[in-house]
């Protein structure tokens, strides 16, 4: 679980999204350490690379249009292939309440047998994204582990 935020990494504010994701993952039966908070940029790619091998890596933040937002690029460079339908569904989930949710550039994909999911950096965007992910996560991880298309 990786938080991409220069401001949170430098102590300018306390991240609120990481704890939401950690709590959700725990409720799903995952063993999760505290969020890894890193500044935007190459540190995001380094943190994702270090987490590969887990069944799931979720990032939050760094998916917008700001010149410093590079989580999608850092993620895409590590993926074997993308899962665009999942990223699109996450964007659409916030659309009714937050029209700007479609500006998220987050990607989802697979690196080895690890599902990597970029979520927005807002608490609402994270909750919306987790609601989408919850509906497909078991099936996705089963397929990545070699299960059948049931």
UniProtKB/TrEMBL annotation:
Pathway: Cofactor biosynthesis; molybdopterin biosynthesis. PROSITE patterns: MOCF_BIOSYNTHESIS_1 (PS01078). CDD domains: MogA_MoaB. One of its GO terms (biological process) is Mo-molybdopterin cofactor biosynthetic process. Residues 1-140 form the MoaB/Mog domain. Gene3D superfamilies: MoaB/Mog-like domain. Transmembrane segments: none annotated. InterPro entries: MoaB/Mog-like_dom_sf (IPR036425), MoaB/Mog_dom (IPR001453), MoCF_biosynth_CS (IPR008284), MPT_Adenylyltrnsfr/MoaC-Rel (IPR051920). Keywords: Molybdenum cofactor biosynthesis. The keyword 4Fe-4S does not apply. This is Molybdenum cofactor synthesis family protein. It comes from Mycobacteroides abscessus 21.
